[in-house]
Design goal:
Blueprint: H1 17-27, H2 30-63, H3 68-96, H4 98-117, H5 122-150, H6 156-177, H7 183-190, H8 192-200, H9 208-213, H10 218-228, H11 235-255, H12 268-283, H13 286-291, H14 293-299, H15 304-325, H16 331-357, H17 365-384, H18 387-394, H19 398-429
Helix pairs in contact: 2-3, 2-5, 2-6, 2-7, 2-8, 3-4, 3-5, 3-19, 4-5, 4-7, 4-8, 5-6, 5-18, 5-19, 6-15, 12-18, 12-19, 15-17, 16-17
Amino acid sequence: MAEEGSLLTSSPNKSSSTSILSEISNVSTRAFVLAFIVGSCGALAFGCIIGYSAPTQSSIMKDLNLSIADYSLFGSILTVGLILGALICGKLTDLVGRVYTIWITNILFIIGWFVIAFAKGIWMLDLGRLLQGISIGISAYLGPVYITEIAPRNLRGSASSMAQLFAGVGISVFYALGTAVSWRNLAILGSIPSLMSLPLLFFIPESPRWLAKVGREKEVEAVLLSLRGAEADVSDEAAEILDYTKHVKEEQVVDGRGFFKLFQRKYAFSLTIGVVLIALPQLGGLNGYSFYTDTIFTSTGVSSDVGFISTSVVQMFAGILGAVLVDVSGRRSLLLVSQGGMFLGCFATAISFFLQKNHWWETGTPILALISVVVYFGSYGLGMGAIPWIIASEIYPVDVKGAAGTVCNLVSSISSWLVAYSFNFLLQWSST
């Protein structure tokens, strides 16, 4: 069912934050390092976009005279773009390749940021946010897939997790910067990761698995040599990729069902795992916390500056810890701990609102609210942020990977939109 191994476990690997980087360095060439940086910049851009709306909510609403409904639309229209991006991500990456798709996503990121930065009204804000959403909808699945396909087998989990860590870094940095930088300047700063990526894209290789899939077999070994080093023996890896791709093509000729091949019984378990894992944090309120953190803090009496900086620091360290542990403890254990922590954080936030509404323990309520939000984001950074996408990039064979990416992205995007649009209204109706 899956070409990369078991669903929720990985082989143990000696790992610490320095040893992960050391191992990547030991097997890396310039091409691999540049590709890893590009993947990391894409995740960083993603994090900046997610973290942008929370600290800027009050200033944008004041400057452009927006209502709660206007700002809820601005926050949630990102997920409408996610849905549009999810619908095309699989087909686009299979059609034009991984690298050209990265070009497209970075250009959309840049345009979106500058439209927001120079917005004069709600329609420009929404347009910029929509373009960013389309780009995220494509890149959220593309990034882990590309890094998984170019990384050595023993480093796929660590490399993907390290790259996804930068999404948490982007959120944390924008939470902190949002306390000191105006929303227009913050939007311009958000374009920096994509602007950095563009010149690097001239020097990174295409995925060897995609090359094999589109019939460019002669380039597979050359690309592997550029990724592993001129002295490396890549004959076995190249043969494995070519043999597997040939087998998949033969099955496609016999089957002939295209996109709908994914819905065969033999893929039912892996499809369920991928869809549920990716939808779970979204349905658990992630975009509500991410987009409207400022509202949660101010509603419970927490200083926004203290809240955003505390959340930034904890989420960043939790992401680093998750990257260290992903190949040591395995995917499944980290997911269980991470999801349990998100539940506790969410439940404690509800308790803080309940205590405040009834005027109980008024001095301690802000502290409980701050701790609950920190626990929620820290737990998310530990595992649920990166691992579901890593698993989704590992458990599907190449012939259905594009279709699986589309389905996973679509479910995630719809879940995100439901939460992002309704959260502010639900908070007004009953904060608890």
